[in-house]
């Protein structure tokens, strides 16, 4: 028997649908990435009104990748089905955002280097989701870890009227500690490969060994530059470091404006409107995000924000262990 499409999950509580968006917002994106996006959706088998969780993936992840088979363990989709079946979580709609770019991610913001992914989510994805027959959405939560946690903080603090709940695990933050040292480590590799434009060309042609540790450092820096920095005449993101070691502090300020330590302060009245605010981080985070999370905690405490905060005995690659707790709060 042949099925119409790939079927690898037999779920008790959900049907899997795909929200295809032929994005006009992303049609002229600077990377010439396809404006056609595929956003998987878990819909409860019984139609009705539900809360919707918008899930934002971490860097180099993407919405559809959450549906991949995992060896010797359940993937996130199977866990959600199990938690819902057991009653540990109430039934919800889950939207897995496709925000992939050629650099490996968009941070879910509007940027000169990647395109207007924030507008894509807010003006195309969510309105189209709300048209689905037989379902209505009572309220939204936005959830993610790492880059997805950054996106959750950004979108909820900018659009509290849309997102009532923010669940952020190990969000990218405190760029001075977590990102600036990476620029110094990556610069020699970028320079050795001919500069940013040449790296981009080689990335598109598949010439890199993506499993090498230095690759991740290099691509992380360039992806974040594409999201946070200015672009040069070729459309490539600009780095604030020069080969002789001088640092462009004015350009770096452009990056820092997009640091949660700065934009959360600016949007504190919006943050106060959130019904749920969950911030979690591992004590041994490899990217030192625990220090930034502690500073965000101070911002919330100083401004009398009602929030849930935890540090767990783990590292950046244990983010998935916090999902159940986060979802249990909403």
Structure description:
The protein has 330 residues and is of the alpha/beta class. It folds into two domains: 14-174 and 259-328, Alpha/Beta hydrolase fold, catalytic domain (Rossmann fold, 3-Layer(aba) Sandwich); 177-256, no CATH class. The chain contains twelve helices and ten strands. The strands form two sheets. It has an eight-stranded mixed beta sheet. Strands 5-6 form a two-stranded antiparallel sheet. Helix 1 links the parallel strand 3 and strand 4 (93-96). The longest helix is centred in the C-terminal third of the chain and has 16 residues, at 213-228. The radius of gyration is 20 Å and the shape is globular.
List keywords for this structure.
330 residues; alpha/beta; Rossmann fold; 2 domains; two-stranded antiparallel sheet; 10 strands; 36% helix
């Amino acid at each position: 028997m042949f099925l119409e499409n790939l079927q690898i999950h037999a779920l008790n509580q959900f049907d899997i649908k795909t929200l295809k968006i032929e994005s006009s917002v992303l049609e002229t994106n600077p990377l010439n990435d396809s404006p056609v996006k595929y956003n998987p959706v878990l819909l409860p088998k019984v139609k009705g009104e539900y809360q919707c969780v918008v899930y934002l993936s971490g860097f180099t992840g993407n919405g559809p990748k959450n549906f991949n088979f995992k060896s010797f363990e359940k993937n996130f989709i199977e866990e959600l089905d199990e938690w819902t079946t057991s009653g540990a979580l109430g039934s919800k709609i889950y939207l897995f955002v496709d925000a992939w770019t050629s650099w490996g991610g968009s941070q879910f913001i509007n940027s000169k280097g990647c395109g207007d992914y924030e507008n894509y989510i807010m003006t195309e994805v969510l309105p189209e989701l709300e048209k689905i027959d037989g379902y209505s959405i009572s309220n939204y939560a936005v959830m993610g870890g790492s880059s997805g946690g950054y996106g959750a903080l950004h979108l909820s603090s900018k659009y509290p009227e849309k997102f009532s709940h923010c669940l952020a695990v190990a969000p990218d933050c405190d760029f001075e500690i977590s990102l600036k040292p990476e620029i110094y480590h990556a610069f020699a590799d970028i320079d050795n490969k001919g500069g940013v434009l040449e790296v981009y060309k080689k990335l598109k042609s598949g010439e890199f060994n993506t499993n090498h540790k230095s690759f991740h450092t290099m691509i992380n820096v360039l992806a974040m530059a594409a999201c946070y920095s200015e672009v040069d005449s070729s459309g490539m993101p600009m780095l604030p470091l020069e080969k002789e070691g001088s640092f462009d502090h004015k350009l770096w300020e452009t990056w820092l404006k997009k640091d949660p330590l700065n934009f959360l302060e600016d949007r504190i009245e919006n943050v106060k409107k959130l019904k749920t605010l969950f911030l979690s981080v591992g004590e041994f985070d490899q990217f030192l995000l625990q220090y930034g999370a502690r500073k965000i905690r101070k911002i919330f405490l100083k401004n009398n924000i009602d929030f849930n905060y935890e540090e767990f005995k783990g590292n950046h690659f244990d983010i998935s262990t916090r999902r159940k707790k986060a979802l249990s709060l909403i």
